[in-house]
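Summary: Need help interpreting a holo structure output

Steps to reproduce:
1. Submit the protein chain below together with the SMILES for copper (II) ion.
2. Request a joint structure prediction with the ligand placed.
3. Inspect the C-alpha cell block that comes back.

Expected: a single structure record containing both the chain and the bound molecule.
Actual: see attached output.

Input attached:
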Amino acid sequence: MLRGSAAFGVTSLLSAGNGTAAISEGQAVGRTDLTLRVQEVNGRPTYNGLSPGPTIVANPGDTIDVHLINDLPALHDDCTDNHNAFHGANTTNLHTHGLHVSPTTDSSGRFDADNVFVRVVPKDQVVPCAKGSGNRPKTFRWHRNKFRFETGADHPSGTFWYHARKHGSTFQQVAAGLSGPLVIRDRPGVMPNYIARASERILMIMNQGLVLTDPAGGGIIDPTITMRPGEVQRWRVINAQAIGNSFAYLRTSVTGLEIYQIAFDGLTLRRRIRVDQGNDDEPWLNPAALAPGNRTDFIVRVPRDSKGGSFSIPVIREVREALGLSGAIASEFKIEVAGKPVNSAWSDDDALPGPGLKPIAEVSRFRREITFSPQFRIDGQAYDGEVKHSIPLGTKKEWTVYNNTGGVHAFHIHVIPFFVTHINGIELIEDEPLRRWQDTVALPYSNDDGPGSITFRTRFETFTGKFVIHCHILRHEDLGMMQTVEVTG
Ligand SMILES: [Cu+2]
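--- attached output ---
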C-alpha cells in the first residue's frame, strides 16, 4: 500500500524492490563504497534522488567509503553572527550515528572520518567567513568530499544509521529525509540460528511516516508486511525523526504475533526481552520506546497454527500522551498473515550473545555532571565551539546528565556508546532491561522532586580528537544544546 503527497513525496521517490534486505550473515550484498549525491527533488533534499538513502552494509573491520556530492543550489548563507540559529541551509555533511570510528580523519590522515565539524557547501557557494574569521575555514569542503569510516575488527554488529549533521541545518535536513540505514553484519556463527536465518526488514520512523526501506534507497510509507504462518522475521527499527517530542513506541497490541527485542542502538542484548504490550510508561521507563536517534531490533514470529489475518500495529510517534498532551501522532504498521505455513527455525532459549563490549567496573573517582538547562543550553551556556570536556585517552568515566527543564531531551554522544546504570538517581538492578549499552538516551524531565537524570559509564579509548555531545531532538541541537569533547593522547 502506497501513500503519497506532494508534501511528503517519498512515494514519488520510490525505487523498485520489495523491501527485503538480504543482510543476514554471509550474504554478500553489502555496499562499502558508494556515492551519495545530495539532490533536490520536489523541493526537498534527497540522497541520489531517494529518501531515505541506500542501506550501507559492512562487516566488522570493513572500511566504508562515501563520496558525498552536494548538488544543492548555492545560498551563500554559512556566515552568521549567531551560529546557534538556523544557517547554511544547503550546506551538509555526513555522520555515521553509533559507529565507533575516528571523529577526525581516517588512519592515513587523507580523508575525513566521522568529523562533525566538516561542512560540504554547494558548488559555487561563497563563504566569506572562511577567511580568518575564527570560523574554522579548514572545515569547509566545496561541492564534494570523500569520507572514510574505518571500523575495527572488534566493532559491534548491529543496526546503525547515517544522516546529515551540519550544525545549523541538521534539523531541516534530517526532517526532510537526509538519512539512511547502516548495518554492520553479524559475525558468522555468533547469533542463534533462528535469528541468523530470519529474513530482515529495515523500518525507519521518519517525519514522513513509518518507512519500509528499500536496500537501494527509498521505501514504502506505512507499509503492509506479509508473513506466513510459522515465519520468523527480524525487524530493524530506526527512529530517524527530527521533530519535537518524537519518541516512538511500537504499540504491539497484536495477538497472534510473538515480538521480542534483541538489540538496542545496534548492540545485541544478553537475552531477548518479550515486548510488554501493556507498557504505557514514559519513554525512559519503556525498554522498547525509541528516543530520536535510537534503534531497536525485534525478532517476530507468527505461530505455525495461525489462521492468518490482518493485524495493525499502531506506532505512536510522539510522547505527547506522557506529557499530558492529547492528539498523539501515529502511524499504522500492517501485518498480513497469509499463505502456506513454513517451518522457520525457532528457539525457546532467551539467551543472546550480548554486545561484545567489556563491562566497566565502578568508576567513582571519575564522576562528572552536566545539566541540560532551559533555552536549549547545557550548563547554562549555548554551544560556543570551546572544549568543555578534555579527557585523556583510555579514561573511564561515570557521568550524570541532569535535565533541569520541563521538557524531554535526548542525550547523544558521538562515536562511543555508554552503559546506563541509573535513572533519576535510582540504580537499575542487574537484570533490569533498561540497564544496557546505548548511544542516545531519553532524559526524564524535571518535576516537583527536582531535575530528571540519567547516569552512565563509558570509556574514552581508541580515538583522540574533538567530537560532540548534544540533544538528539535536532532542533534543540541547532539552537545550541551541544558541547565539544576532546579526547587527548
Ligand atoms: Cu533537547
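--- end attachment ---

Reviewer comment: Confidence is low (pLDDT under 50) at residues 1-30. The pocket of copper (II) ion is lined by residues 409, 471, 473, 476, 481 (CB under 6 Å).
Status: needs-info
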